[in-house]
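**Backbone geometry record:**
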Amino acid sequence: MSKIGVIIPAGGVGRRMGGVKPKQFLELSGLPVLVRTIRIFRQLPEVTAIVVAAPAAYLEETRALILRYFPADDILLVVGGESRQQSVRSGLAVVPRETELVVVHDGVRPFLTPELFRACVAGAAETGAALLAVPVKDTVKAVDANQLVFGTVDRRELWLAQTPQAARRNLLEQAFAAAERDNFSGTDEAALLERIGCRVKVVPGLERNLKITRPEDLVLAEALLGTETGVEMGSTRVGHGYDAHRLGDNRRLVLGGVEIPFARGLVGHSDADVLLHALCDAMLGAAGLGDIGRHFPDHDLELKDVSSLLLLERVVGLLRRNRLQLVNADLTVIAQRPKLSPYFSQMQAEIGRVCAIPPELINIKATTTENMGFAGREEGMAAHAVVLLQTVLD
């Protein structure tokens, strides 16, 4: 199979949205539109490189957004130009040389399916280039500058172009070189390919492969997401978290944000509160935001010996920005000693305070392993957490 590189032009500023930030940063059911678009391609094993072209003024914001949701080396980021054509050209320059087929997809078109992607790629493999499109279904009128109709256009040969648009790399490079030489500006890659005589195959797309351009598109996208995935505002999400830390000398034992008198403590970069770490992981998992290591790496010096209540507070902040709220949590500590039940109510109070829910909705249990395994030998402790989150209605 050919190596496939994807270029996502996200260089626009979204003037038609009428907002203060580019449309690719707007949230769609709790996740930025651009993140939803990138996720499509990260789930496709045939995609070997992903390049995002971002506006120069929003480059650092885009970088921070990508690092928040994806591993650092997964996405290549370049500065987009004034036009889509310039942005794709910038992306093409950094696509790895071994890439044979290049796919361009709008950063604000988050409903592409793997089936449509593969159909487009197959079309490009057949003719050299392909794009998704849908036939025009409404009557088309030709209108003059005074908004008077002067004719009806035959719609039988008219299609509305979508993305992805795919082409063999060498053909796309030739098309861009010719456009640059002739000072030609096209509205999509197919227009550039057509100019150099390339056969561009039209692959039937779907109406739901929506491009979010205007405010009403975002409303439609919210409804579409709820219809297709079952995830809509007011719905619930479940997450599970697990963590383990070894016991060591000269360390405080902190569990659930509470310091517990004991001869030894848990070893870690922070206070090693295994219970809160499991809780954070469960909340991040339910929100689809990765894990605690991604957000709080153990090489961050600012987090050295920090209270895990602060980490929990930051996770709660992430949930709020994604319109999510903890409903309840069921937590289990696995430890041979000491006896932990006398501290449960204090743990519940601390967790409930940070998460802004009643303490009684935080259930905490402890169990031993009957002297089996690392916990039974008192080499360390572990914790499991199960949480329920609910999307918050505006």
Notes: The two ends are 46 Å apart (CA to CA). The chain has two domains: 4-229, 236-391.
